[in-house]
Amino acid sequence: MRKIILLCVIVILNGCVAQKPLEELGLITAMGYDNEDGMLKGSIIYYEFDPMHPNNTKMVTTVAHTSKGVRQKENLASSRRLVSGQLRVAIYGEELAKEGIISIIDTLSRDAQVGTMSFLAVSRPKAQDLLRLSQESEDISNAGTFLYELITQNVEGDTLLSPTLHEFMQSYYSEGHDPVLPLLNFKENTIVIEGLSLFQDDKVVGELDSNDSFFLKLLLDPFEAGSIEITLPKEQLKKYILTKNNKQAESVFVSLDHLRSDTEIKLQDKKVPSYSINITVKTRMQEISENYDLGNPEAIKKLEEAIGKDMEGHLIQVLEKSKEMVADPVGFGNYYRAKVGNESYSKDEWRELYKDAEFKVNIKVEILRTGVMD
């Protein structure tokens, strides 16, 4: 009897669930937002399931006062019922992002259909233009899927900080940490990651290039599989260069991969404030542009020291750039708040203190294996 009752309940409940035949839905994979004369312009790429046309994607652009209004108008312009459960990437035009985007992102985060692991990004051209050009490109069949795979493989390859919706919201609501998102552009018929957009709260205040993003990741997220090319003055290493190829009169190029890092940040003086940053990097040298004496322990030690000093200089430059923008992508404010306590901490006061922050950086590099010579 119990089995019969249970079966009846299941049948009744199934009958109450709204059916959504896939053929009737438009699966949104990418969305973009721009400002348009004081209003919000929304663009979406959506996929229509059609066995006869496996790569059937379409784009719709509408204008409204709110993101919800944009969605309503997008539905009016589509023959399919639009759903956001397959959203991969949300893009915000740089012009809009400089004005503040938390209201749009907050609405997105409250959408039960949207997963918190969806990616966010900033677009140097208007988001509409980026998506339109991607639709016209023969190299991109679906902008949402392409962008998701582009960002995913760079995050997994340790060349990009993870820009999920969850991580953005976590940084935004943190009292001492500002968000960071990848900066996209359209070049040579495809979408590329040009660098990182730095935020102060929810407003873009500047950017770092792709080389700078390596050093920001060095502070924020320990490397497990990273790679980088380092340029060193030949003068520092000439004692251990066996033959002079004269490919570059002034520089030696070293390619490192399989980076492993460990970072320790401490607040030394809360009045200044001043920080000590100690980083240990273990890596494999994949390639060097000169005939270097790799069998000599002293030569390897000299090379490790030169790489460490070069990294220290670049890291300090990145920190100084961030200070000039009054953006705190590392979260130094959280280290400060932990020292002074929540009651004595004010975000506005911290912004002023951060402008004069000092950093003492020490990077120790250990080359575990050497690769080939150019």
Blueprint of the fold:
Blueprint: H1 2-16, E1 25-36, E2 39-48, E3 57-64, H2 67-76, E4 81-83, E5 89-93, H3 94-97, H4 102-109, E6 119-123, H5 127-136, H6 143-156, H7 165-173, E7 180-187, E8 190-200, E9 203-209, H8 210-220, E10 226-233, H9 234-237, E11 241-243, E12 251-269, E13 274-288, E14 291-292, H10 297-325, H11 332-340, H12 347-354, E15 358-373
Parallel strand pairs: 1-4, 1-5, 5-6, 6-7, 13-15
Antiparallel strand pairs: 1-2, 2-3, 7-8, 8-9, 10-12, 11-14, 12-13
Helix pairs in contact: 8-10
Description:
The chain has 374 residues and is α/β, with parallel strands linked by helices. It folds into 2 domains: 197 residues; 152 residues, 2-Layer Sandwich (GMP Synthetase, Chain A, domain 3), CATH 3.30.300.210. It has 12 helices and 15 strands. The strands form 3 sheets. Strands 1, 2, 3, 4, 5, 6, 7, 8 and 9 form a 9-stranded mixed β-sheet that branches. The protein has a 4-stranded mixed β-sheet with strand order 10-12-13-15. A hairpin with a 2-residue loop joins strand 1 and strand 2. Helix 8 crosses helix 10. The longest helix has 29 residues. The N terminus is likely disordered.
Q: Please estimate the helix content.
A: 25-40%
How many domains comprise the coordinates? Answer: 2
Largest sheet: 9 strands, mixed
Number of strands: 15
Strand residue percentage: 35-45%
* Gross morphology: globular
Average pLDDT taken over every residue: 88
What are the segments in which pLDDT stays under 50 over at least 5 consecutive residues?
1-13
